[in-house]
Amino acid sequence: MHQSSRPHRPFPPPAACGPSEKVRAIVSGAIAVCLLGTLLSIAGDSDSGSSAIVRTVKGRLFSPWMTPPWLDHGFDYRLTYGAPEDAEHALEVRRHGDDRVGPASLPGTLTGERAARWERLARAIALDVDDADRDGLLAAAVGRGMFDDLGGEDVTVRVLRTLPTDRGGAAPAATPAYTARVRMARGELQLLRQEARAEVAPLVGPPAPRPGGPTKAVP
Amino acid sequence: MSTRHAPTAASPPAQHGLAAVAEAWERFWFFPADARPLALVRIVAAVAALALWWSYAADVQAWFGPQGVLAADTVRQWRSPAGVSLYDVATSALAVAVLFHATAVVFLLLLVGLGTTVVAPLAAVLWASLLHRGPMLAGPADDCLAVLLWCLAIGPAGWHLSCDRWLCDRAGRPTPPGSFRAAVSRGLLQSYGSAITVAAVLAQLKGDAWWDGLAAWYLAASPQSRCSGLVPLLEGSEYLTNLLTHAITAFEILFAVGIWFAATQRLVARIALVAWPLIGLLAGMPVWGVVMAAFALPVAVGPVNHGQPRIGPADERGSPLPTAAHPSAS
């Protein structure tokens, strides 16, 4: 794999002091497959997506045995882009329409890796909106799981997002990134997603009269 | 016809090149290596595993219990279809608690090195099971620890600094001087350490923050960062912010590449023992930093090989073994 910086004297052949030829061949094959699988995972599991060929080869030949041992990962640890996805996320669950019971806020005052896990859950709820297969799954589960804690079967699940602070700027306030009402109705769990209010173009009045031009009555 | 002479009269250059690659492959993966560095990796991995296990401890029933927020059927729908977890069959609170605490016991056994041959793979299986039970809770430290545990499961991680060693010494059984399994384990640690770093650098360089030099600011200003004391400094100097950002990228590239060259690998690995934990602290992921440093540990502390291995006592198969470490550690 690499060369020694010192004068190289010959090693005894591995056959003389290591495993047999057959074992070396089998282990070599296993290592090669393992490294190829890792390469395909890195190529195929990043946020940038993947080509059809990488997706197919990895999905059919490698994912079935790399996923159970938790090795099928892209390891694309960007740490931060300063983007909304990198913002702090927090989960807030409260009884719907009842402010007498305080909301359950997570991670709240927790710190460290424990807080990071709750935050990852909150982020997953917010980002699942873009995934048709997962949208609402976690929010419904979290809402249902909180029924007992909040003493009611109608709760509001919110994910609050605090954007990264710009250099020299003030810390921005938390804004809702996801809101849904989760309730049990006639024995059936319902999730009613509240869409964020869409941004609309500002109302504009009639065009101002050009200086010197004819004036027109506004109806 | 040419002043160049062939490496050997019998082999053409291409054949010689292939033979050289094959020889390098054999030396890298199969030359018996010292298992002491693996023992250090085992101890670091076990401590990191216990820290990460602890981060689940207070909420394990709130997440995975029968009344938890992550019901098993929901998680099965959410995760990859190939995902599988021992917790899937733990449907009661007691079963979840037993499985979860058994994981801690296994990590403790891994730490002290008792029954390591069985405990190391068991630790990897139990850790993967826990992660598959709640994949949305897992972070970079969890992923990298899983890789580390599987690498340890392959090698003789309990041959040194362990209760296993103590028991063998009491029984009068000598320590084998090296093992090809240690070489494979060490090679995988080196390969994965490099591959994970390459993937991280590629991901980072897709974002503007790593090009305009502000990424270090965003990391330090995050509430999770353990380096919030840097914020006033970085706020006062854009150049310092840029320098820190580019230093992180430069280190990662240096680590991913430099760990493969004999002239640089020891130095790079020793820098990594300090740099990865610092990056972890800055990013608010200290355990991840420690786990990444563990990938560099065998290269950083492995014995120096000067090219001529000493022949030691026989290994398990009865073959004479060199006592020197892996040939890559030069």
Describe the protein:
Chain A has 219 residues and is of the alpha+beta class. Chain A folds into two domains: 14-66, no CATH class; 84-194, no CATH class. Chain A has helices spanning 14-17, 21-44, 52-66, 112-127, 137-145, 147-150, and strands spanning 88-95, 104-106, 154-162, 175-185, 188-194. Chain A has a five-stranded antiparallel beta sheet with strand order 2-1-3-4-5, with helices on one face. In chain A, a hairpin with a 2-residue loop joins strand 4 and strand 5 (188-194). The radius of gyration of chain A is 28 Å and the shape is elongated. Chain B has one domain. A two-stranded antiparallel sheet of chain B has the order 1-2. Chain B is globular and about 65 Å long. Chain B is mainly α. At the A-B interface, helix 1, helix 2, helix 4 and helix 5 of A face helix 1, helix 2, helix 4, helix 6 and helix 7 of B.
For the structure shown, list the relevant keywords:
heterodimer, A: 219 residues, alpha+beta, 2 domains, five-stranded antiparallel β-sheet, 5 strands, 33% helix, B: 330 residues, mainly alpha, 15 helices, 2 strands, 65% helix, disordered C terminus
Structural class of chain B: mainly alpha
Report the order of strands and helices of chain B: HHHHHHHHHHHHHHHEE
Main β-sheet, spatial strand arrangement of chain A = 2-1-3-4-5
Number of helices of chain A: 6
Number of strands of chain A: 5
- Whole-Å distance between the termini of chain B? 39 Å
Radius of gyration of chain A using CA atoms only: 28 Å
Q: Give the amount of beta strand of chain B, in percent.
A: under 5%
Class based on secondary structure composition and strand pairing of chain A: alpha+beta
Low-pLDDT regions of chain A: 1-15, 213-219
Q: What general form of chain A does the structure show? A: elongated
Task: Give the helix proportion of chain B (percent range).
Answer: 55-70%
What sort of overall outline of chain B do the alpha carbons produce when their principal axes are compared? Answer: globular
The biggest chain-chain interface is:
A-B, 75 and 106 residues
Mean pLDDT of chain B equals 88
The order of strands across the largest sheet of chain B is 1-2
Number of domains of chain B: 1
Order of helices and strands of chain A: HHHEEHHHEEE
Count of alpha and pi helical runs of chain B: 15
